[in-house]
Amino acid sequence: MSSVIPVTLPHTAYEIVITSGCLPQLGEYLNHLKLGQKILVISNPEIYDYYGDIVVNSLIKSGFEVYTHLIPPGEPYKTLDSIAQIYDIAFKNRLERASTMLALGGGVIGDMTGFAAATWLRGINFIQVPTSLLAMVDASIGGKTGVNHPQGKNLIGAFYQPRLVFIDPLVLKTLPVREFRAGMAEVIKYGVIWDQDLFNQLETQKELDTLENLEKEFLQTIITRSCQAKVDVVSQDEKESGLRAILNYGHTLGHAIESLTGYNTINHGEAVGMGMIAAGKIAFKLGMWTEKESQRQDKLIEKIGLPITISSSLNIADVLESLQMDKKVKAGKVRFILPTEIGKVIISDRVSAELIEGVMQELI
Asked: Is 251 an active-site residue?
């Protein structure tokens, strides 16, 4: 099973390759891109233990000079201090403008590697090799890179496109169940905002909460359709001047929840799931979509095994304050992505603090 999705943007073009068992052929693919000889592979220790040797040996076999740098896993390490460490390694090994930084890992590794590549020597080659479902269907595509600020998620960053996104679904066999479910939250997001047929297909599956419950063909479908949905949106709006904002469905409240829980008790997908449930309730209360559609979404989120309630320890006043720091705030107004039907959403700044507070009370 193999899919190749072309990404064509005004100033760059690249491919998303989705092929089961392709990881050992990575070096051969990169040879076609005419990159410089030096490649810095950035990963975390756990992922590197699983797949580091396969990637490094493939690159060496194809004639590349390979260096490695490992960063501990998790959002708490998605900081400028970690970026500074990458710069030190790049300087030590004399990475040049023709050189490459390669992200082997999930969304955190991809975001940091991309930001480092965007800013080292004002921009060097960048390759994404995502190993989590969330990174495969979302974080590795579209060129958003960055790190967190203590007051908010991804407040420091740049738009910087990779030269290639190289996806081997077989690596998901080592992904923890909780992280698989986090990735499925983003898949549901694409169904709600863009791809009604994908949403309907998810509904027809008996179980969605573990990788083992998915047929290989359906996993390929999930990844391919999610990637295509994101490409469709990003191709029309690369730097989020309009349409691309819909990709943040569920993320407005989700980022606030992540930030306020210190990025270590609720993962990204869980927070996005909560954010989608909240956004669905807000849309229903504003008369934008039906209660039935809201319930369909919530049942699907519950079906993949994500939490559907918010901890009572979360202070709603803190959430409202955190929302004001969101990147999507415009002229002081928080912009929410709200569904109007399965497969369609709008961007709205008419969501009052009282409405947000009421919906959150329902979810606690």
From this structure: yes
> Within a 13 Å sphere around the CA of 171, how many CA atoms are in the beta-carbon half?
28
> One of 255, 281, 327, 328 is an active-site residue; which one?
255
Nearest to 280 by CA among 265, 267, 293: 293
Is 186 one of the annotated active-site residues of the chain?
yes
Q: What is the dihedral of CA 230, 234, 236, 242, to 10 degrees?
A: 110
As annotated, the binding site for NAD(+) includes 107-111, 131-132, 144, 153
Contact of 305 with 209, CB cutoff 8 Å? yes
pLDDT in tens, 104-120: 999 999 999 999 999 99
3-state helix, strand, coil in the chain (%, to 5): 50, 20, 30
pLDDT at 304 exceeding the cut of 80: yes
Q: 32, 34, 94, 122: which one is catalytic? A: 122
244 is catalytic: yes
Examine the residue annotation and report whether 248 is marked as an active-site residue of this protein.
yes
Q: Rounded CA gap, 208 and 216, in Å?
A: 13
Averaged over 127-141, what is the pLDDT?
Answer: 97
Q: Which domains does the chain have, with CATH numbers?
A: 2-174 (3.40.50.1970), 177-363 (1.20.1090.10)
245-274: pLDDT as tens digits = 999 999 999 988 888 887 778 999 999 999
Burial of 288-312, coded b for 16+ CB within 10 Å and e otherwise, reads: bbeeebbebbbebbebbbbbeebee
CA distance 361 to 107: 30
d(CA 42, CA 103): 5
